[in-house]
Design brief:
Elements (H helix, E strand, L loop, with lengths): L7 H32 L2 E9 L4 E8 L4 E7 L8 H12 L15 E3 L10 E4 L7 E3 L2
Helix pairs in contact: 1-2
Length: 137
Amino acid sequence: MSKITPTKEKYEEAWEIVQRYEDRQKDLAKLNKDLGFCLKQFVQFKFDVNEGKGEVTFSGLTKSGELKLTKSAVRHGDKFEDVIGKLICVKRAIGEDVEYLERYIEGELIIGVLHTDIVNGLALRNPLGNGKTYYKA
């Protein structure tokens, strides 16, 4: 059996894919660490994760005795990541901003409302993940 040596372009393309994968894993590990930090505000908590529907439901009892219930759901076209859904739920429960998490959500085409200034109801999420949204008129 003969071995086929990849071209330099194919090698560089594969290396970029590996780099993106490793960067993604680092991002998810950071988000998981953030989740652990946020959960310290609760004495008891429970997550119900429905990967099929792309939903996470959170219930937690704070140290002050308040019961917090929140839910997050993936939007059409987005990739479901349970750690992101969990972090959104917990941050909503403690009243923290979740908008910054938008840059960690992988997706391609989003139809509907991402921001208030949608052009013709169609918005394209930037695949580079730098938080910008690009519009197609």
